[in-house]
Amino acid sequence: MGGIGVLIATTLIQYKFRLVQRVKKLCTFAMNRAVKIGLVITIKTDMKPKDVGTKIGDKWHSEGKRVRIITDSRSAYNLDNGDYVVDIYQLPDKQLGVKTSNIETPIREVDDKFTEIIDLFERLDGIKMDSIGLTALLPFKFELVEIKTTSGIAIEDYDIKLKNDKWKSEIYLKLRDKKSPLMVLHHLECFNR
Fold first, then answer.
1. How many whole angstroms separate alpha carbon 134 and alpha carbon 184?
2. Is residue 48 helix, strand or coil?
3. Long-range pairs for 142-149 at CB < 8 Å and ≥24 separation?
4. DSSP 8-state symbol, 59
5. Can you list the positions of beta strands (E) in 25-165?
6. What is the mean pLDDT of the chain?
7. Cβ 96 vs Cβ 36: under 8 Å
8. 87 φ, ψ to 5°?
9. pLDDT higher for 33 or 85?
10. Whole-structure pTM over 0.85, yes or no?
């Protein structure tokens, strides 16, 4: 009888504090396991995909990276630097979409890799970033997610929206189910001041 009580108490403590999930997460950070990230960026420009791709290729060459052009067409331009592929494609209204392939990076270096890619686009003349989407494939799963709302946060079917009126920015977190990647989309009016 005492064993059943201990089992029930252990189950309730696990449910309340999510101990197994926390231990997995801590182990992931401690071992600095790899995460796959992918970016989708929308930019406003008068340039064609090839012009933007050429500028990116020139920056990579100046950093000593080898650049290989995969596709060179009127509406799309794809290039590879050995670490990841960048796809640039035409969108309506003088906009271009930029998408990277999945980039594998240690979990503690995700911020550095993200900043490196964003800095690349901030240094390009003649473009203005409009939005950034980040997909992260984490090496652990979120289970039993409990979300407590505060002001500035709206939740609709696990779509979490954080709004900041001062910077005119919005961040979207999509948590469809525990097997889906985590998607973060940030509307960048704050960078276009």
1. 5
2. coil
3. 142/21, 142/175, 142/178, 142/182, 143/18, 143/21, 143/178, 144/15, 144/18, 144/21, 145/175, 145/178
4. H
5. 34-45, 68-72, 76-80, 85-91, 95-100, 103-106, 127-137, 153-156, 159-164
6. 80
7. no
8. -105, 125
9. 85
10. no
